[in-house]
Structure to design on (661 residues):
């Protein structure tokens, strides 16, 4: 009575993300129902037991994310999925995962905010929340899929990055991507590249749980292994022991930030469309990037040299790529389904090239015609 | 010829990260005694130390996990039980023990406590109740009695609020093993912790402790020795008493004993049954 998915499915983004997670080896889902991410929980509740995994529905999002951290420390790939209000509750635990270097994946199907906002309407309002929401200085990895297939592929990638860099990874999908239905092709198991966390190889007596290798990532022991360790959200030394010494704080925080920033080239994923000779570039991600692609095609038909830089990852921010783009084009348009979030990052990386924001804090993304109109306006200047 | 002098070692020292001593605890604090109780319980059971995970939240008792030489984790405030659930469900072979304080378990973490009781997940929660937030300097908490003094419930009235009775809370929420002891009843308490670990289900053991530095000073209860002597004097052992009668009146009567020990389906066992049924 197993409900194994078809190899080719016509399905929604939420379910594609769930299947991506299962293909990546995720066997623990700590959930709490919330629109528009509920389908992920519902799918997991059916699929997890089939794969001898666990779907657990908690009393709130705080418990669900914290349990995911606990599950991850047993060596199990673990995730949760929620939307903005849930992420707001999870942010303290995201900090704990950053500080204890816990691999986990958090899928945020972004809806209209602030507060309860418009639960059934999409938005891209949580981009900065993912980066800055928890207290203290840290880096995060944020992936921004724009199709059902990418919901699958990038959720697999999210697990790989979480395992490789021992860090929480956000999949930041707007509600439209989460709820749209498209064709999904699930590759053969052997064609899905998986990354698993490094494990210690030293004698247990010599194991230092937070001593990093050259890649700035420490091998990770798990509960129940021969390695005994203490992990804490307090600032800790290589032994994992709490410390209030200034140099320990500086060393730890610098390493935690650098392990993401210095590996940014490995993490960042961009798609360039018609950019080679472009004079006007649109930067977009998620659903607005689909409108932007259509807009570029229309503009090109009318002889305007426009192109698209699609961000498949927003964190770490592709600063160098945007700076380079800014030297190649005369004008950049940022189209976001919010009041301007990534816009600020583009402005800081792209100055002094003029940068125009097309903002829209509502469920319907910028339409292709609207972006074409903006491109024409700029082209005629 | 020199002779190596053998230093006396505490019999439970093998379970403790001695390189982290001295403890952060104040003189007269009960948390060290409770640490010993948990180590004794593990020792008595002879369980594989590699399979034990000790988890705590934030606060004085929250620091206890860091002294155990097991796998141990210091979570955010109030979330020790939620973390522990993830550990236990992802790997049911592990023996999961939560040690944390009354503020951590019953205020900020109160929701996780009652829901973990309801789910009946196999873990043992040892809650050290010292009637106040000690780490932050002695503010009233969810177990502080009405009109007791603290840094945030000053004279002339003291605490406006009324306390939770943690035994009643855990029992009515569905825990399958519930006990209460004071810190001075170390052997009985260790035996209950042992039973809690053995129990296939959610076990809750409250240890009523002394915080002479904060709660004791605010309420003129004397030093650590005086406070522990008092606990011994007012402790009244009533094993098997219905949990709703397990009163806690700090000055006069602290009812101690094992109040709940029932059988009901355990969460991870049910998950396992679900998987088997699907596999058919």
């Amino acid at each position: 009575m197993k409900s194994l998915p078809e190899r080719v499915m016509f399905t929604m983004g939420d379910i594609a993300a769930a299947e991506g997670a299962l293909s990546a080896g995720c066997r623990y889902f700590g959930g709490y129902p919330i629109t528009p991410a509920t389908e992920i929980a519902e799918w997991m509740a059916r699929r997890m037991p089939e794969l001898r995994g666990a779907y657990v529905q908690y009393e709130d999002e705080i418990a669900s994310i914290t349990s995911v951290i606990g599950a991850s420390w047993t060596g199990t790939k673990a995730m949760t999925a929620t939307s903005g209000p849930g992420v707001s509750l999870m942010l303290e635990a995201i900090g704990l995962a950053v500080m204890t270097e816990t691999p986990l994946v958090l899928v945020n199907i972004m809806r209209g905010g602030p507060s309860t906002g418009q639960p059934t309407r999409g938005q891209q309002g949580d981009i900065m929340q993912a980066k800055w929401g928890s207290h203290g200085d840290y880096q995060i990895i944020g992936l921004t899929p724009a199709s059902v297939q990418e919901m699958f592929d990038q959720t697999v990638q999210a697990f790989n990055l979480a395992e490789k860099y021992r860090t929480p990874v956000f999949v930041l999908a707007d509600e439209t991507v989460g709820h749209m239905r498209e064709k999904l092709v699930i590759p053969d198991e052997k064609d899905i590249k998986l990354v698993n966390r490094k494990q210690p190889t030293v004698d247990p007596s010599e194991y230092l749980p937070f001593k990093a290798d050259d890649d700035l990532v420490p091998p990770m022991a798990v509960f129940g292994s021969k390695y005994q360790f203490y992990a804490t959200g307090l600032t800790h030394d290589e032994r994992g022991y709490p410390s209030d010494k200034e140099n320990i704080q500086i060393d730890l925080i610098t390493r935690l930030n650098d392990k993401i920033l210095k590996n940014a080239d490995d993490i960042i994923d961009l798609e360039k469309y018609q950019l080679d000779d472009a004079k006007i570039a649109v930067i977009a991600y998620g659903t607005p990037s689909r409108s932007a692609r259509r807009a570029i095609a229309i503009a090109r038909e009318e002889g305007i040299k426009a192109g698209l830089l699609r961000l498949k990852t927003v964190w770490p921010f592709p600063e160098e790529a945007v700076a380079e783009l800014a030297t190649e084009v005369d004008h950049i348009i940022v189209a976001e389904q919010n009041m301007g979030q990534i816009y600020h990052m583009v402005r800081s990386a792209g100055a002094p090239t003029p940068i125009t924001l097309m903002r829209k804090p509502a469920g319907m993304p910028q339409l292709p015609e609207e972006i074409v109109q903006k491109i024409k306006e700029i082209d005629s200047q | 010829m020199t002779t190596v002098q053998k230093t006396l070692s505490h019999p439970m020292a093998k379970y403790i990260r001695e390189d982290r001593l001295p403890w952060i605890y104040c003189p007269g604090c009960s948390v060290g005694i409770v640490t010993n109780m948990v180590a004794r319980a593990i020792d008595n059971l002879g369980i594989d130390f590699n399979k034990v995970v000790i988890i705590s939240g934030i606060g004085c008792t929250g620091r206890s996990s860091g002294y155990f030489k097991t796998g141990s984790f210091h979570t955010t405030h109030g979330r020790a039980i939620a973390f522990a659930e993830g550990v236990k469900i992802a790997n049911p072979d592990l023996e999961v023990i939560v040690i944390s304080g009354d503020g951590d378990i019953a205020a900020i973490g109160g929701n996780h406590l009652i829901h973990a009781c309801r789910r009946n997940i196999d873990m043992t929660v040892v809650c050290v109740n010292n009637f106040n937030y000690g780490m932050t300097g002695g503010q009233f908490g969810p177990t502080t009695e009405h009109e007791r003094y603290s840094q945030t419930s000053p004279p002339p009235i003291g605490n406006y609020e009324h306390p939770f009775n943690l035994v009643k809370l855990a029992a009515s929420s569905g825990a399958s093993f519930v006990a209460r002891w004071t810190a001075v009843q170390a052997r009985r308490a260790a035996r209950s912790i042992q039973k809690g670990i053995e129990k296939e289900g959610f076990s809750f053991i409250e240890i009523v402790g002394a915080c002479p530095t904060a709660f004791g000073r605010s309420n003129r209860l004397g030093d650590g020795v005086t406070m522990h002597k008092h606990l011994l004097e007012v402790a009244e052992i009533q094993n098997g008493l219905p949990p709703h009668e397990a009163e806690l009146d700090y000055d006069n009567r602290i009812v101690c004993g094992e109040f709940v020990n029932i059988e009901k389906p355990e969460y991870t066992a049910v998950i396992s049954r679900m998987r088997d049924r699907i596999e058919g």
